[in-house]
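Posted in: Protein Modeling Q&A

I'm a second-year student putting together a small comparison for a lab meeting, and my supervisor asked me to include a predicted structure for Glycosyltransferase RgtA/B/C/D-like domain-containing protein. I've never done this before, so apologies if this is the wrong subforum. The sequence is pasted below exactly as I got it from our records. If anyone can share the structure token output, I'd also love a short note on what stands out.
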Amino acid sequence: MTKLKSLIQKHPALAIVLGFQLFRLFLLPFMGLMPQDAYYHFYGEHLALSYFDHPGMIGYLLRGFTEVFGKTVFVVKLADFVVTTLTLISFYKLATVFLSKQKAKNALVLMSSTLFISILSFNSTPDVPLLLFWSLSVLSLYKAIFESKKYHWILAGIAMGLAFDSKYTALLLQIGLLSFLGFSNRYRKLLISPWLWLSIFISALVTFPVWWWNYQNDFASFAFQSSNRTGDISKFKLTPDYFFGALGHQLVLLLPVLFAVFVTFTFKFIKRALLKFKLPSSKTLFLLAFFIPTFVGFFALTPIYWVKLNWMMPSYITGVIIAALFISKKWIKIQLITSVVFHVLIALQILFYLVPIKSDDTWVGWEELAEATENLQKQYPDTFVFSNDSYKTSAALNFFMDQKVYAQNIIGIHALQFDYIGDDLSVLNNKNALFIDSDKRFKNNAPNGSIPTELKGYFETITELKPIIIKLQNKEVRKFWVYYCVNYQHKK
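Accepted answer (user: helix_wrangler)
Welcome! Here is the predicted structure, written out as tokens:
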């Protein structure tokens, strides 16, 4: 005990970081399955070179952990926690090449205190492996450029490729790299270096599986992630709610102090560049090259497009390092106090579910729904189960039930990755089904009282059954409408 106390006194920053991580680890067993956990685990159960929504790294990660440690909710969460911890370690290693020892520790404390690290530790998304490989990419690029270590060009190429295999926004790594070299007088000569282009070539080789899957599937994933969204952006309709929504998300993810520092130094450097035509030092310019395109670029879209809360996360890696150059101990202390308050509130919500979540994006009720559905199948034997909410209910039930649960492609609606696992839906012809539909707003226990129009034409008769009500601590928290559908007819 004395040794531990002495260690904490000598290394208070380490104690703070370990405190946050142990707190997150403590909460893991109490976190239920999120729909995203289930969906990306579904990726791993249907191994492929890539997938419709995203590349497959998160699916491979979850498959690896569940193969070794077993298929449980805790193991899925543990995978996210372990990889995010590795991201923190990589981030600290990166911070030490830019900052003094004390400022690097401050940067690690700032990063560890954010809510976005907690989100990545609890919830499976492509951002979990993305941020690890993003950190490793920037670190290797630093060593290749500033320390002239040629083999790090190769390591950077591999890391950038693996980042892209995690999420398409990793393309901003190459954009940041070329932007830095283009603006840097000192290092511009590297634009004609064979090592640079070898690195980019290696990154392209590592991403080949994603390109090959897209080629085999009419570039469906690239079209989904690009053309659909650029079409919305091209409408150029000002929507203030989008901007304020993104602002609120960033304030929560980073917490107000760190977000304010981000805004302050961004304004400072952009103003200096535009009005005084003066760029920062090479190392600061390098950090900004991997911050500005992502943070400012996505923020610039918010008045006309709904930017998801996780899109700016990669910019936090170098953004926090820059913030550590400016922030005082006083504001670090305020950041920590704010963070502790938020994390206590999160813990209370996880442990006691104090505030009902009117959404399917919740960790509550999925396992109970699976049990209730299996019991219902005993009353209606030989039925298959399907849902129609993009992926959430279907993925969650697939995780907990020892049978295949189908999505909305049953009724002719595009169903994301469920469309690409090779199902022959015609084998279900003439079978009966149970259709599960979440009542997100859940105001009472009453049946819906109407038949969903999208089911008509696919079944001979459709009968609404008694809703499934999920209770937590003797309190009704979720509701699912249930329909018994007779004699399915698949339509090509």
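A couple of things worth pointing out for your meeting: The longest strand covers residues 459-472. The two ends are 69 Å apart (CA to CA).
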